[in-house]
């Protein structure tokens, strides 16, 4: 088998329906946004934490504008790499920003896998056992590899079933918890201080991370049915579904637990909220839904990031070695993805994994908006005011998040800075030594490269 991603393009084009794309997008978003990040958002934002999800949805909707405009014109598997390459040309900026996106997606897999492990072990009181959490997270990542290795239709079909289960289950939990607890108890009975405005703004970085799963759709654009129309529709439907679910759950958790209780149980806040509101049955129901949600989230994320890495390799933006493995680039990148995600899941805790992901994603997102604004705005028919607003929103949130983390955990800011610098320096060294310049694939309108 030859090692070029475009050779498989015609086989995979049109393999994902509109509904399947929405299932994958919501699969990634809901897996991270609700079960992994609710507690951390509440820790920063206090009683106003539901507003953080609204702000995150607004910023994400602005951000999605660039991706939709680009994907409508040039739908492609590995779409973000394509966007950056078209905006900046083959070089260090496009390659580095694309790699930051891929790394933030791998980080997301680790984040959701550890959340799966925490919820799965909670009924046995073992969620504080570090090695068991790491082992369970690693097991989920291996399972995600097996599903992805079975092919696109397996991923799409599995994601669709799991998304239907978890969206219905989460909505049922939220409505029942709100009905049982009302709106005047828990976190919403606590006083609100306007001095927390900066922390609320900083929390939006986590909320944006909770919505970034829409990039799963962008990165699979060439494989969606009628991509010129359906990529944009799939992204906006996914964001709309998620904001409704997020707000329902935020209100349910906030009405059942105080902020201190949410923070104490931040890695399993939904399960903690279910017990006082709905009793033991509600607790176990929530754990089951969390397991379904995080499982589908990891599977969808592995699918997207492995294809993005394949695109980067095909465009000669990153080095590649098969290490004696058979098969093509996609199968190799699937292995690399799960190895990196598994390593991160074993070594790091949820808070730092989420913070690193937020830093990497926001920097990459700002580079996308700037590139479209400066170089592609007229070609794709994008409005400068929307692009500038998206860029400014990302910048404000990144600044607030950095300031908050410098006070609470300066080490993670250093890790993020070192990681970003290492990516740019590493890409500069690789590209300067690589005699073959990065490819510049053109799209013929069907999502296939010529």
TrEMBL record:
GO cellular component term, pick one:
membrane
Keywords for the protein's UniProt record, in alphabetical order: Membrane, Transmembrane, Transmembrane helix
Domain of life according to the entry: Bacteria
The record's annotation in InterPro entries points to:
AA/rel_permease1, AminoAcid_Transporter
Q: How does it sit in the membrane?
A: Multi-pass membrane protein
The membrane spanning regions, by residue number, are: 12-36, 48-68, 88-108, 128-147, 159-180, 192-214, 235-263, 283-306, 327-347, 353-373, 385-406, 412-431
State its location(s): Membrane
Protein name according to UniProt: APC family permease
Molecular function in Gene Ontology: L-amino acid transmembrane transporter activity
Is Transmembrane helix a UniProt keyword of this protein?
yes
